[in-house]
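Our collaborator T.R. sent over the components below with a one-line note: 'Predict the complex.' Nothing else. No constraints on interfaces, no templates requested, no preferences about which chain binds where. So this is a plain run: every listed entity goes in together, and whatever single assembly comes back becomes the starting point for the next discussion.
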Amino acid sequence: MSIDIAQFHQVFFEESFEGLEIMESSLLDLEIGQPDSEAINTIFRAAHSIKGGSGTFGFSAIGEFTHVLETLLDEMRNGTRDVTREAVDVLLLAVDSLREMLSAARDGADFDANAVAEVHAKLERQLALGGDQAPAATAPAAPTESAAQPAGAGDWIIAFAPHPNLFATGNDPVRILRELRALGRSEIEADLSQLPDYAEFDPETSYARWTVTLDGSVEERAIREVFEWVEDDADISLTRGADAAAATATQSGADDTAAPVVAAAPDADERRTGEDRRTGDERRSTDRRAGGNTAAASSIRVDIGKVDSLINLVGELVITQSMLGQLDDPQTVDFEKLREGLAQLERNTRELQESVMRIRMLPISFSFNRFPRLVRDLSTKLGKEVELKIVGEQTELDKTVLEKIADPLVHLVRNALDHGIEKPDIRAEAGKPLCGTLTLAARHEGGNIVIEISDDGAGLDAEKLLAKARERGLVGADEVLPEERIHELIFHPGFSTAKELSDVSGRGVGMDVVKRNIKELGGVIELHSTFGAGSTIRIRLPLTLAILDGQLVRVGDQTYIVPLVSIVESLQIDPERVKSVVGAAELYRLRGEYIPIVRLYEVFNIEPQSSALEDGLIVVVEGEGQRAGILIDELLGQQQVVIKSLETNYRKVDGISGATILGDGTVAMIMDAGGLIALNRIQPQSPIPSPKVKAA
Amino acid sequence: MDTSMNAQPIEMGIGDNVSDADQYLTFLLNGEEYGVDILRVQEIKGWMATTQIPNTPEYIRGVMNLRGAIVPIIDLRLRFNMPAIEYTATTVVIVLKVECEAGERTIGFVVDAVSDVYNVSAEQFKAAPDFGSHVHTDFIRALATVDDKMVILLDIDRLVGGDDVLNASGSQH
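Returned assembly:
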């Protein structure tokens, strides 16, 4: 009955990372001086389960590390230790180290042993100072060094005799012994006298007994804790022995797994690799968080409510199906009922689709949760006072989108802290409150999710930006740009206005990458900034990458789909309003703005129904911050379409973001407004100037 | 896959080939007979209207919905610079699995008509002669004589892999 323990690893890692997040957010919420005991309990419980799990799975380094952490937390929980800012800082560091160790264990990589040891030392220093407790409390904190310590007054003699049915309760004595050993210097003796003949041997029965001699300085409570789960399934006696008792011949600790516990063999290997990892001290890349997300599980945790609603819907679908099934006699077909049934089927299908999509939806708090820590650390580092407000963290969006938005968001928040919010003295001069405010907000708007990052900092200095752009030749010397166009310059590749490079942000790669990432997700990014009063960056993303709301349009005999998100309006052409530039480029005057007209049939090389402007319609679309009017023959209906990639069997096509299959089984191309505008610009026959640029 | 195949006896089919042979599906293009490895054939469909892909050469006829997958359709006549003809009742699309750098792709090829299935063993392979620069022979695996007819065996992976249009990644603006 050898169980492959590795199959539980994934669950352990998932739960542990979740636990770490709980610890981190609770730590950040802890009020210095007067902590909420419930919060400390939460942190303690999370640490405790990580410790338990890592012990079970043989990640001994993690277990040992967590143990120290747990001791510290336990003292805080009991009120024997004050919650100081330093302690919280160290605990946060420890959470980071744990995250790194767990990621390393999951990916089979090495973690930075030196860094971990450093944090470990810091934890112990915390334990040693503070706290009203006597040295007894600090002793278990140093398990690795315990071998060097002189034997205590009297070592513990622990007799551990599991009942024969121990395995049936899901407990593994090896794990317990290993935990004991982690407490301090120990010697473990196995008593195999109860072991029957091979023929009588029942692998599901526990026959072995153990006598453990453990370092006397270990607290009794710590030992009791190890046996917490098996108290009712074993006879345990705990006595203080004389020094001499420890000297009796014993089996060495390393052999404990050789005892006839059937499940022990794989564990032994497990532990060995664990130790190999611990000794590896190759330095890992610095960004732990980024590393932590790479091999991340492709599994998803779904709220049971969502699954229940799916089951209900499938139930309804079955009912509808059987109802329609009863109508299949052609003699007596009741059209009224048939129509009713089809309507019901349509409703069921739509609801089922929505529910299935909802399974992939996660609250954005998964992404927002990292920011309190980030803001805390960064503002301290930058010497700024910043209050972070999070609004709408329960807003849900697709898991894929959520994962891809994480890094751009971090970048934007760093930017806001670094360049946006000013130092307190500058803020005081400007008459602002000393403490800056950074707001992260998310909300649903139509079929989109809107994420806003706003600060009440310095805002963008348009003149400085423009000067910089001129210097770099991005803007002509006598070109006049409206303010919003100037602000958009920060999205230009290689444009960084930071006076000096800092390690927080500003290496010149940044906003353009952010913009590209957002664009890849089918989203748009907008910037509103008032000099001296702050900036707001608004990201608009589709809720899911799999489905979009589209407007079907016809050009010649081809049907295209224009995503509704990119459509501003559709209108009939008034020939009076069509203007031309140098006889070629066509512009349409719309409420004081000149919008280039894109003749789709020219750009896509297809045969139109009519090339006369007045016969067609223009669909005004917005992409990459620019507008264009796309000339089409006819507007057809609107519908939701499932996006299919063209790249699976073909390749990327300019001006097209994908394809879909329409109700009649034919394929329709989905237009990419931004790509189309760019494509139109490079068509040599129609040199169209940038729309919003007016000559001085 | 090409030369020595499994030793299982193949049912006597067309031609007088015995063991050690691969099966090839052959089709007609402008009176010439071409063959593709039958294991690559996913299905054969009648011609249906396709959806055009903007700005592509004429030989890419567009894309088709193949049970939910978007499959590009290539007119082999036009690909080989043969004169175009009206599609008729015998015009078919042979859907093939193609291995290329980007992974496995499914692509449909329009041909005049499906011809036959032959067993062709490696001994029957004749290397294609060098036609000079005006005919590319990279994608011809071999020539084979079956029933006194010449069959041109295509290396479909090379045909697709060597096609710039099919492999270019859209230019970034």
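Summary for T.R.: The longest helix of chain A spans residues 335-359.
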